[in-house]
Amino acid sequence: MSTTLPLFWDLSSASANTRIDASVKLVSSLEHFQSQFVPKKNMGRGEDGAEQKGDGLDALNAQDVSYSIRRLVRGLASPRESSRLGFAVALTELLSKIDTVTCSQILALVLDSSKTEGTMTGQEERDMYFARLFGFISVIQSGLLFRETTLPSSSSLVSSLDNYKEAFAELVALGEKKSWLRESAWWAIGLAIEALLASDVSWKDDAVESTVSVLFAEKKAWTPEKIALTLKLQTQLPSRDWQKLLSPTFKSPELLITGNLGTIARILRESNVDDDEESDVPKSGAWKPQVHFVWDMLLDRLLSPPAQKGSNTAPFPDFFRIVVDESLFSNTSSPERKYWGFQIFTKALPRVSADDMPMIFTKNFMRSWINHLSKSDRYLHKAARQVVSDIQSYVKENPALGFTLILQLTGVNGSRQFDKLTRTKTVESILTSMDKDGVQNYIDYLLKQINDDQTGEPVDAQAVNSRRAWIIDQLAALVRNGAIPKSDDWVQSILDWLAVHGLFAVTKKSEKSPISALRSVPAPQFSDELRKLCRDRLLSCLADLTGHTTAVEKEDKTIVKIPAVASDGRFWVDRVLSTIEKLEKDPKHVAVLAELDEEDQALRSKARQLAARLKTVPGPQREAARGAELLLSATLLHHYCADEEADAETLESCIDGATRMFPVETKKSKKPRKSTGGDAGDSAADVLEPVDVLVDNVIGFLEQATAYMRAVANQVFSLLSGSVQESTISLILTQLERRDPAELMAVEDEEMEDDEDSGDEEAEEDESSEEAEDEDEDEDADEEEDLELRKKIEEALRINGVEAATGESDDESEEELMDDDQMLAIDEQLAAVFRARATEKKGKDVDAQREATHFKNRVLDLLEIFLKKQPSSHLTVRLIIPLVDLIVGTGPDEKQLADKATGILRSRVGKAKELPSSVDKDEAAEVLQELHSRARKAPSADVLATLSACTMYVARALHHVGEDAPIVRAYQESLVDFVTRKASRLNTQFLQDFVRRQVAVAWALRDDLLDVTSKAVNAYRQCQVFLLIHALVKELPQLGDESKADVLAFLPKLRTALIDVISQACDESEASLTAAQIKELFKLALLAVRHMRRTNASAEELLVVWDPQSWNDLSTKLAANPRLMSSTALQTSCKEIIRAVGESAKSGSDRPTKKGRTDSSATASKRKAAELEDAPAPQKAKPKKAKKAKTS
């Protein structure tokens, strides 16, 4: 047993794999022991005594085997972790492997080890009941209960009829003891019946008779467990007289016939079958959240092939309607029953076919599901959400069934607004999981509901309009949802449908038309509100498609992603315009809603011709031509979809700009004939560049603030960014200037007046009359506002007993004087009136300011697009100062503008990897100087960081074109300001970034850095300068050997500056530099020495530059200073510098002697190095002090 005892511990593990592995090892070991065991003849009557006589296991089994059987049976009552599961599995496997035990022995052992006593606690009693249940299940599943063999060397049968009856009776009794054990006990009985019917034991018929007698004669009450066993027995014993056995509870011997479904529903609902009045309240302590195992049997039986379920079996839709929908989901059903219903629906969903699936979305189920989904505080909200999750998972595995599910969710029993009612995205998620065919089927389904099918009945216009509005929204949602797999065919069909019903009226159907919307005439016709909704959704769809990228295959078979186009490379907007053009040429089937005059028709025709010509522009202008084409097409489409009569000036401006930017290359073309957009545009065309005209229209799109306009504007500008000029940038930056909303409105009015004055005399007269009417209307509006204010004041006075003066009686003698309280009350009333009036005016100003902020935000998008698409443009420098002004000059109500501008400067400018190939040197120098000037007065650290990133970009750009003088001058002034002015807003990081990233230019500031150390306003600023020098010295290897002479000339100055500063700190009575600060200076000196050594400087140069004697004197001064003498690390650092110079000198003098040269300079250097080696402290202390100085 020493080899099997450790395995019992793992049987209780919480890990299923660990339990299974332990079971396998235990059973294998016991099989091995049993194979080697030889039973003795007198084993049963030996001196071992009582235990052998009790169960007789030791007679034919090895000691390990009998011990393991007893321990496994006793372990079934253990409450520790997963002991019961592990021991039951091991016992089942062991009993199936050995043939030296009888069923009587094991049953007796199980019954004996699971006896309950009156002194047991409730938990101990439950453990015993479970031990008995698991013990019987192990006997049944191991096959021991139906093993008709004899024991080795004996004629005794392993199992018998009495064993079966005993096990059956004990399981029935166990189910009667506790209601919560009934289902499990009868499930074990079901296992026994299945094993019995599948076995060939000689007592099979007697066992079946006994089973039927107990089930139908002794147990009259019907339970879900009895239905489950009846289903099993009916399948295996069809020749039985089931009419007699099932009556009088059931009318038909076929249990699942339609007539019996009502009775089955009451039984499964656990209601009283015999009573007419049924109670849906679950029995106390009897309800369990898990559904009964009989439901799996019923679903498998009803959804099996017809040959297996029988000819009289009720159809599954009838079963689900009667037993589930009208029972568990009835109006009077309890939440517990509905919880069961949700689980049964989840079980049925993956089992049903596509034809039967609509039948499980029944009326009561859908009502309960939507009701509990709609609010999170509903009792079954989590259960309803779980149903949603199961449906979504099911559709992902079966995309073809997504369309069927959507039909049910939005159909008769559901709601068209299912997602809105339930506050979920169930329909949307199903759509994203569907394939292209499923989406097309859904679109066809939606379009079929356009017409009212109730022929002969009065048309409910409101219901029809509501349904059509929902369909329009659904079609638009399909296009706008980026997760739904797109196909050019169904996307184009939706766009065509929206265009047809938004811009035309279908008068006659055309069966052969490629446009599906023409294949039927809507009855009744669309209302004006629906047509407007179609136009709005058309533009919103195009807005999303314009921002969506599509993989397009080029002629060379390469795949590129292009935005705003279909898979053939054509703009979606252009595709819609082509549809509109076809419809305009088909007056037989459609009628145009808005009639146009000849001028507008000519203008639109001209725009189409120009857009077609722009498609053929070759070469480097192709991208800009595509941008102009998109702008022209989008403007033309917006012209079609405008609610009111669209202003032709915008379209004329686009035509003018595109015509002049891409002129027709013919011999007869002349410059004076470039602009043919009308006399009104001649003056503007002479002022603005063609690209400026186009960009001005783009800005006009942004002012309208619709998603369509914004998407088109951003995409057009992205394509035109390569043609942007300096005047274009100025035009964009003008929009970011801070202006008062009232002033902006005044300017717009002036522009409108100027435009009116530019017309002919008749137009002027008409417009002047209109202006007069407008002024009259404004005056009337003001008078109305004043009258309203007057009424409020009079009401306030009347409340306090004061009548307003009417002019008819002003006799002072009739006035009644008011006391102080009345006057105060009137003051409060009047103050409230005037306060409300002020709030109204303030609200208007706030709205105007908010709209201006949003507009500037959209303009910033253009600048970001430009910097992203043209990172090497020379115009980038031109953008920096205006963006900085926007950051600094915006108020708290425009913080989002400042944040966005900051992000643009830091990401697109500060982190730019590409630099302009050529810049305006004077402009760049001026920008750099201005940035430094603002940095010295930066209001915050964030602004200073942004300015630092911008200065670095401009400095890199100037250095790239070989203009370093402005950079040195700007940083020199900032350095002086930082060091000498205490109120300077600069910090070390601002200068340190320049030193580290622009080493070649920063090297020119080396002398300035040393000079300002003596002018520092305090010790901290002085140390910061030396920190900059430290960074510069650290980057000196980047300069190469070309600057070696300059380095040798700079290092003596550095040595002198360092020694002077440290000596001054020793001489001053007050603490100027701390020990930590002086230590950093020594680190700088040591870094410079090491750098000089790496440059292969001669020993004489090292000695001359660093003068070890001066450092020796400084060490002596530090040791004598009362304030610094306690810091031994300073003296150690000083001596480390001396030693570094000395070692370098020594190694330098050894090199010539190896080559045979014995000149006097080498000898002198060698002698000086030898003298210096005697100066420091004992050498044993040197390494420790030096190491301590470095770590501290």
TrEMBL record:
Ranges for region Disordered: 746-786, 1142-1192
Main subcellular location of this protein, as a coarse class: nucleus
Location in or out of the cell: Nucleus
One Pfam family recorded for the sequence: DNA_pol_phi
Biased composition (Basic and acidic residues): 1148-1158
Keyword Oxidoreductase among record annotations: no
Biased composition (Basic residues): 1181-1192
Record key words, sorted: Nucleus
Keyword Repressor appears in the UniProt entry: no
Similarity section: Belongs to the MYBBP1A family.
PANTHER family: MYB-BINDING PROTEIN 1A (PTHR13213:SF2), MYB-BINDING PROTEIN 1A FAMILY MEMBER (PTHR13213)
Name of this chain's protein: DNA polymerase phi-domain-containing protein
Organism of origin: Rhodofomes roseus
